[in-house]
Specification:
Ribonuclease iii, N-terminal Endonuclease Domain, Chain A, 249 residues, globular, mainly alpha, 3-stranded antiparallel sheet, 2 domains
Length: 249
């Protein structure tokens, strides 16, 4: 089932696809000719279920999840052939995470293409989730063009190269709670205790929650965030950076 789109929408989608700067002749040809069948697939990748319960990005998102993991595995194999399977899994988890997808979606400004129903438009809490999901659906649509991950890797490899290097240089910035737990265990300490206080009731407030971390009964760091998870992650990162500074990490 296809969704009829007008010339203005076709131009909007092809302009967006061109901005991705995927260095592929066959992908460029799709953009140049404005292949309507393919453009319809991409249009579907930008439709939220609140707008259309039948034609939306959910199937492409599901598909894109598998494509993303395969393309990331392909990148890691080429870039880090000596890396162990465990290390590969850890790195891949970072470069295909929901947070990473949302960051990528914001970088390419995918939000301007997304069509949502009134309820979703007014829901600030789901904004980042929708951006990440649409980005994953976009990846599924790119694969669907050619039944190949080639274009996905041509697009994402350079981005992954920078992001993976940042992760490998300072993994604690990306998985601070896990790293802090491992540090405590290596020192023979009990696991960190996280205590959350809600400072405001406002959705989207970057300082809505405050988190204190206690190690062996002593408060060692405090940080805030817009969610429980973010506050805990920020507090763990602050503590690790403190431990590095004083030479205990």
């Amino acid at each position: 089932m296809t969704n009829i789109i007008n010339a203005e929408r076709i131009d909007q989608i092809t302009t967006f696809l061109k901005s991705l700067n995927i260095k592929s002749k066959r992908f460029s040809e799709i953009i140049r000719t404005q292949n309507i069948s393919v453009i319809n697939d991409f249009n579907q990748a930008f439709i939220h279920s609140s707008e259309n319960k039948i034609i939306n990005y959910e199937k492409l998102e599901f598909f894109g999840d598998a494509v993303l993991r395969l393309a990331a595995s392909n990148f890691i194999e080429k870039k880090y052939p000596q890396m162990s399977v465990g290390e590969r899994s850890e790195l891949r988890a970072q470069i295909v995470s929901d947070e990473w997808l949302t960051k990528l979606g914001k970088k390419i400004d995918i939000e301007k293409l997304i069509i949502q129903g009134p309820k979703a438009i007014g829901d600030e809490n789901s904004k980042n989730t929708i951006i990440g999901e649409a980005t994953e659906a976009l990846i599924g649509a790119i694969y669907k063009c050619f039944n190949s991950i080639q274009e996905v890797n041509l697009w994402l490899d350079d981005i992954w190269e920078e992001d993976s290097e940042n992760f490998l240089k300072a993994p604690y910035k990306f998985k601070s709670k896990t790293v802090l737990q491992e540090w405590c265990q290596s020192k023979g300490f009990d696991l960190p205790v996280y205590k959350i206080i809600e400072l405001s009731k406002k959705n989207g407030d970057p300082n809505r929650f405050s988190c204190d971390i206690f190690i062996e009964g002593l408060k060692e760091s405090t940080a805030s965030g817009k969610s429980h998870k973010q506050a805990e992650t920020n507090a763990a990162r602050v503590l690790i950076e403190k431990l590095i500074t004083i030479g205990k990490f």
